[in-house]
Amino acid sequence: QVSTQSTGGLSTAMALLLEHLNLSIPDEEMARRFYLEGLGGMMNPVGMVWLWCWVEVGQVGSKPGRQLHVNLGASQFHLLVEDQPQVWCGQIELWSREPLEDLANRIPGAELLEDQVAERALRCECPWGNVFLIRDPVRAGVTPTEGEHAGGSNGLVGISRLVHLVLPGTAEGIGQFWHQILGCHVVDRETGVLIEFSSGQELEFEESTEACPWNAYDTDTGRHGYHLALYLGLDKFSAAFHAAEAARLLYENPRFVGGPVEFGSALSWDDAETSGQFRVKDMVDPETGKDKGLVLELEVRSTTHACLSLIHISEPTRLLSISYAVFCLKKKKQTTIYIIISHLLKKNRLRSVI
Q1: For position 47, what pLDDT does the model report?
Q2: Which of 6, 134, 317, 341 to pair with 275, CA 20 to 30 A apart?
Q3: What would you report as the CA-atom Rg of the chain, rounded to the nearest whole angstrom?
Q4: CB burial class (10 A; 0-12, 13-18, 19+) of residue 117?
């Protein structure tokens, strides 16, 4: 049953796109073998729309080992190289245009689920325990979201659904958070709630006794400190920001303090409007104002965000001028300079650097 409760001025139209899932990985080469060679993702050649460069002893070049951005249609995996791997508490479902048998032959331990005739799928796990379910969109009669990031796509063409396990009794409050704070289209399920996107993607919160603790993001950040990025339309973005601000749910991620505003944590409407983003993480039931169903960081973006120039969404975007910022971080005797350059140019290509 679709929720029809009042959202206090928020539009009940769907969110636009589930754009990326950010996970930490401890081994870059192993991640390349699984996500690129195994699953069939495509490496993003420019790391989203931003170029990260570094300067040391007068040499300039791309900084290795920072993170991998893996393209799959209009969505991505952002894989940050850290000491400890992060594991999504649930299941990651993907679309692939490759024959599932070919994927099964490439991925160790992959299992074809032949009993699901109409929904034939391949189940596999990454080296660190993330569970994936891969389907053929043609067989399922689905057209994945149009649009690609720089570098295009390979076999993987989209995130179809993310299923996150939550503790019994918490799904209703989580659904109210998404409905009343973010203004999203929420469908009640027997075992949880489903967030629907106009892209055809789904985000499901399924109640289970096997769910990780509701606050694992805070208490076990190394393993469960992952985050999601999603896009809202312009009117919905504005209303969602003010709803989150009124409920005191805006979140400032210390990792991005002092960096480019496009990847920061806007705490004022002026900053949110300029950068096209804000963050929340405490999924509090608005009815009570205190019952937290889940802590999960969400990077909420509007269609004015710089990175949307790489994908094609039906709602028109506002062209931003070329911008760059230089930040210096002095560490012992070495100075690292991050040069972040954003270009919104035709055909999703960088015309110049500096």
Answers
A1: 54
A2: 6
A3: 20
A4: exposed
